[in-house]
């Protein structure tokens, strides 16, 4: 009995649709991903057992290095645009569009207001060489930290999710931290977040039990 020949079918699979989906997903993640801004200085923060995570947005951050230099940062480009426009108008800085844009897309500021125009006209690596990153003044005679906080809060437009954070080095001089805390107190800002490194909670403590149960500190 002769064998029945089965008709051959093509094994070619059209991958066009799958490639389209792959490129669409790649494009989505490229556009949706938020890159972490560069740290203005290297800071070794103290340790704590608090497991509360730092939010990704709606944050005003003051970073303080071991020498007491203060750097200001705030997320949200539209809000940063409002902030720099207000400062430019109030202090008559004469910023051009390039300098304003450098602030809007930049990460942090670490100089006094009178040097801001020169600061924003330079690249980050040039600022360090020029010695402009001296930190924002916080002493009572010229407390520009208060200025940045006030104008940043105004640019936030009463944002209920706004959080204030201080990220200070282990070796930061205490008087600098005290000046910052006094400034927040003067602005009637009572709730602050201190950025720390997570360490293991002591065995048997409430924090250790909460972690074992999958709870985070509030």
From TrEMBL:
Topology in the lipid bilayer: Single-pass membrane protein; Single-pass type II membrane protein
An annotated GO BP: protein transport
Pfam family, one: ExbD
UniProt entry keywords in alphabetical sequence: Cell membrane, Membrane, Protein transport, Transmembrane, Transmembrane helix, Transport
Location, primary (coarse class): membrane
Domain of life (superkingdom): Bacteria
GO cellular component, as recorded: plasma membrane
InterPro entries registered for this protein in UniProt: ExbD
Subcellular locations according to the entry: Cell membrane
GO molecular function, one term: transmembrane transporter activity
Family: Belongs to the ExbD/TolR family.
Name of the molecule in the record: Biopolymer transporter ExbD
């Amino acid at each position: 009995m002769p064998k029945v020949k089965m008709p051959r079918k093509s094994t070619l699979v059209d991958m066009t649709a799958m490639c389209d989906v792959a490129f669409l997903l790649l494009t989505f993640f490229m556009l949706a991903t938020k890159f972490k801004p560069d740290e203005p200085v290297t800071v070794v923060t103290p340790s704590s057992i608090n497991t509360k995570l730092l939010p990704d947005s709606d944050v005003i951050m003051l970073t303080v290095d071991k020498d007491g230099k203060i750097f200001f940062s705030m997320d949200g480009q539209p809000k940063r645009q409002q902030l720099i426009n207000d400062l430019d108008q109030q202090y008559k800085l004469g910023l051009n569009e390039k300098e304003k844009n450098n602030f809007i897309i930049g990460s942090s500021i670490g100089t006094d207001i009178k040097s801001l125009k020169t600061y924003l006209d330079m690249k980050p690596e040039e600022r360090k060489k020029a010695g402009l990153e001296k930190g924002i003044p916080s002493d009572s005679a010229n407390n520009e930290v208060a200025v940045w906080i006030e104008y940043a809060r105004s640019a936030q437009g009463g944002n209920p999710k706004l959080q204030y954070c201080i990220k200070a080095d282990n070796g930061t001089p205490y008087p600098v931290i005290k000046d910052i805390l006094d400034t927040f107190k003067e602005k009637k800002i009572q709730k602050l977040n201190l950025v720390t490194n997570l360490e293991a909670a002591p065995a048997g403590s409430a924090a250790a039990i909460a972690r074992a149960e999958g709870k985070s500190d509030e």
